[in-house]
Amino acid sequence: MNPLKYSANRLQNQDLKLFWHLIQLGFQQQFSYRAANLAGLMTNFFFGLLRASVMIALYAARTDVAGMSLQDAVTFTAFSQAIIAYLSLFNWWRVMLAVYSGEIASELLKPTNYFTFWLAQDIGRAIAHFLTRGLTIMAAYALFFKITVPQTVGQWLALAVTLVLSLLVSFGWRFLINLTAFWTPDARGIGRIAFGLSWFLSGFMMPLRFFPDWFVRLCHLTPFPAMVNTLLEVYLGLLEGRALLGALAQQVLWVIALFALCQLVMRAGVRKLVIQGG
Amino acid sequence: MQPAIISVNHLHKHFKIYKHHRGALGALCNLFTREATTVRAVDGVSFTIQPGELVGYIGPNGAGKSTTLKMLTGLLTPTGGEIEVNGRVPWKQRRAHVAHIGAVFGQRTTLWWDLPVIESLDLLQYIYKIPPAQFQHNLDEFRTMLELDPFLNTPVRSLSLGQRMRADLCAALLHDPPLLFLDEPTIGLDVVAKERIRQFILHINRARGVTVILTTHDLADVEKLCERVMIIDYGRVLFDGRLESLRDRFGGQRELVVDMAEEYATVDVDGATVAAREATRVTYQFERNALSASDLIGRVSARYRIRDLMVREPNIEDTVRRIYEERLLDEE
Ligand SMILES: Nc1ncnc2c1ncn2[C@@H]1O[C@H](COP(=O)(O)OP(=O)(O)OP(=O)(O)O)[C@@H](O)[C@H]1O
Ligand SMILES: [Mg+2]
Q1: Closest CA relative to residue B90, chosen from B108, B112, B68
Q2: Is B127 in CB contact (< 8 Å) with chain A?
Q3: Which end of chain A is more exposed for a tag (fewer CB within 10 A), N or C?
Q4: Do B168 and B160 touch, CB atoms closer than 8 A?
Q5: Based on the domain organization, do B270 and B211 belong to the same domain?
Q6: Do B72 and B85 contact (CB within 8 A), yes or no?
Q7: Measured between alpha carbons, how far is B326 from B312 in angstroms, rounded to an integer?
Q8: Does residue B173 sit in the same domain as residue B68?
Q9: B70 Cβ under 8 Å from any chain A Cβ
Q10: Are residues B229 and B263 in the same domain?
């Protein structure tokens, strides 16, 4: 059940070894929630069908909107549904729950960087979701619709890179939102608003290129497009040459900025943490 | 004298509790008003602990024991005062600090809820970066001593409390920490399980030289394990010393139970009162500071023929209960 298990013991560097084992842990834990995963899969899929039919109605007689064909637009709905679980876009409360339950005590008693500790586990979780939810949904869609697929090696390569970067941006953002639990007893409320924002501004709901220019430029001041929109455009092959490199560079910058911010805020949070119970 | 492994100086931890208004309007109020009361959970605690000591840290509910331990383990930042453990300041150097201590907070587990015990322990090997040989050696020793084998492959969530506590103890010691913090390690365990845990704690203290601090509400733990005991209440240290000296000072009356050779009409002796009398069995009570047991026995045997006798020390439970309830140590 755990294809990641082998190579771990070959790693020499102790920190990498730990990182790898934590990835495994996150991967493995996903398989404890079989029923939830199945339900999630069904929801993602059927909601996607709904979105696809809305998109078809929207196109009506048109063949091209902002450089996207109808097939691209339908693929957009498929792909965005397929990456919900992988990016864990609207639902990740692990750190918040640990703070509120006091479980964070057990985690802080371990000599690891708390951010890296969760990053590794989230990567494992994402790999599991990519396989069980992402690929499945794309395959299921392909049965119903004609779907765009990257054509060149270069496109696939760019897709691989942006997939990883999108996950890192998304993780940085989710971790940061979870950290508010160190200060307020209502981090979930803040999280709902934050995740609502990301739903709209990331290009998840509609491709950002459908919106007016000024709005898109506003979005690009936030990390949200770097989570979803870039990934989608790379998949659809809408970015080329310098535009592609620029988009990837922007993602890298957001990863650096968010990760640094996470570390800073986390340090401040741990200092003032009040551990409940005992 | 060796340098202390723990030194604590005027340690304080105050919690602010904000008044909470109820209801929807109240929630709005909560945003704007910040009426706070302060709880002085730890209020000026100082002590030092030498390597190899096994110290009991006791006190009634809410005394500040867990709060102290959380600061010593680097989980809480003190409001004031200093802590140095192993030459480090726990809350400033958390990662380095926790790499060199073991800790079990009895009410929760450090293991992964949905993993089998052995997989949790394996992960700890990587988290603490324990060399494989050392890990294997420790694991072998602990799994025999703590009898972990029957449930090594059981997920932690399915373990009984006693089993979980044993697994957690093992987990806390795999990386050979010189120092172990235990917050209520025997809470909720049956007599046999408690005894097994006590044996284990004693073993790692004696054989491995691990310094141990434990809190407990079961004074039998303290009696069987700790040469030194600290009593705290209201966030202050009320007593710090040997258990016997506590008994000497606050133990109150000792008892001498005598089986007389025959039933006497009167059984009075000087310096003791007759607390109970039942056929030929007489129970005397006497002040430990006024009269020694051998003097009293001398006096009784001078007047009556004795068949058998027994001196009863006051129960430590009673002593400590009196200290908590009557606040005997407060004036000092
Ligand atoms: N997070 C917190 N916020 C507010 N007050 C707290 C908090 N944690 C502890 N306290 C208060 O501090 C005091 C000491 O609590 P602590 O948990 O240290 O007691 P304890 O000695 O461990 O008690 P017990 O034997 O019941 O476990 C109590 O009055 C408690 O209500
Ligand atoms: Mg406690």
Answers
A1: B68
A2: yes
A3: N
A4: no
A5: no
A6: yes
A7: 23
A8: yes
A9: yes
A10: no
Nearest CA to ligand 1 atom 5: B15
CA proximity to A94, closest of A70, A119, A75, A72: A119
Nearest Cα residue in chain A from B155: A32
**What atom of ligand 1 comes closest to residue B63's alpha carbon?**
21
Least Cα separation, residue A42 to chain B (angstroms): 25
In a domain, B332, yes or no: no
For residues A182 and B77, give the distance between their C-alpha atoms in angstroms, rounded to a whole number: 14
Q: What is the pLDDT of residue A8?
A: 53
Q: Which residues of A touch B76 (CB under 8 A)?
A: 273-275
- Residue B56 in contact with ligand 1 by CB distance below 6 A: no
Judging contacts by C-beta atoms under 8 Å, the chain A residues touching residue B98 are: 108-111
> Quick one: B243 and B263 in the same domain?
no
pTM score, whole prediction? 0.86
pLDDT tens figures, A37-95: 888 888 888 888 898 888 888 888 788 888 888 889 999 999 999 999 999 988 899 99
ipTM metric: 0.85
Considering CB atoms only, which of B123, B127, B183 is closest to A111?
Answer: B127
Q: Which of B50-54, B311-315, B316-320 is the most confident on average?
A: B50-54
Name the residue range of residue B89's domain.
6-247
Closest CA to A130 of A174, A170, A87: A87
Same domain, B205 and B272: no
Rounded CA-CA distance B96/B129 in Å is 13
Model confidence over B142-158: pLDDT tens digits? 999 999 999 999 999 99
Q: d(Cα A172, Cα A94) in Å, to the nearest integer?
A: 13
Provide the domain count of chain B. 2
From the CA of B213, how far away is ligand 1's center (Å)?
18
